[in-house]
Amino acid sequence: MDIKKAVLDDLSEVKKNLLLLLSANSNEPVNGKLWYQKELFLVSKNNKELEVEANFEPYFWGAHSELVDTEMDELVQLGVVKKIGYKYFLTDIGKDIAKTVSEKSSKDEKELIEDVKDFLNSLSKDELLLFVYISYPDMCEDAVELKNLLPKRKEIAIRMYNNGKISIGKTSELAGVSVSEMIKELQKRKIYRVE
pTM of the predicted model, to two decimals? Predict the structure, then answer.
């Protein structure tokens, strides 16, 4: 069976974006299921076709799509993607297929995916969940980790700010305090930067 032909002939919007995601940033692996779900969810906010097809729904760990999991499982079964530990990588055939998909995709699509992957892949599990839970509260029905994160939200947000991952506005939003309160806290810790 010609795997490349089979994948390209059956290329859904979800599968296309999974391949672009996995090939983004020099084929850097995706940290795990939680990450690829959230990365595609954020991409879908700027890609109507992906948003409609993936149909993300509220879930215990924020936005989730059954179809995204199904498509990733299929790519693994076909040998296009391999899973090592929690991380997902493109195989050699996967890189070849992703290159073909990338050549047919717009520069804007690829840049968006690279930016989203670069940001979310750099986050710890707590940082990722806090970001998604607070930024997209409508996707957090029965959020299992939210009650554990709320007492730590200020420290998690400050750590993200200190590591240059988020702005002062996003830091205050994730921490659940006003911008002026957050500025005072960051000044007290001597880590405030004028943006």
Answer: 0.93
